[in-house]
Amino acid sequence: MAKYLSAPLMDEDFRRNLEAEEELDLIFDEQEAKYLKQIADEKKGREKAEKEKEALAIKLAKQMKKFGASTDEIAKETGLSLKTIQKL
To answer: Which parts of the chain are coiled coil (predicted)?
Structure first.
């Protein structure tokens, strides 16, 4: 607040430099926020894809188990752990 109250007392060049610096800070903050949001969105997308991949693997494992495939075969084809397959 003191900065804004003392603004009229500053010389013109100093005041313009201060305003430019504040504007740059604002632009930087906006860009940083966009970048962080983009990173978060990409992470969510990867997590969603991993969940979908695992759901498909589980579905395949259930079908393979139904048709008599061994636990080792199922693990090899689906990438699921033996413990996960045994729970199905």
So the answer is: 39-66
CA-CA distance, 26 to 73, in Å (whole number)?
57
Alpha-carbon distance of 59 to 11, in angstroms, equals 72
Residue 4 lies in a domain: no
Listed in sequence order, the residues at least 6 apart from 10 whose beta carbon sits closer than 8 Å to its beta carbon are 18
- Reduced to 3 states (helix: H, G, I; strand: E, B; else coil), residue 45 is helix
- The model's pTM is 0.60
Phi, psi of 81 (to 5 degrees): -75, 155
Cβ atoms < 10 Å from Cβ of 39: 10
Predicted confidence (pLDDT) at residue 57 exceeds the cutoff of 80: yes
Q: Is residue 25 part of a domain?
A: yes
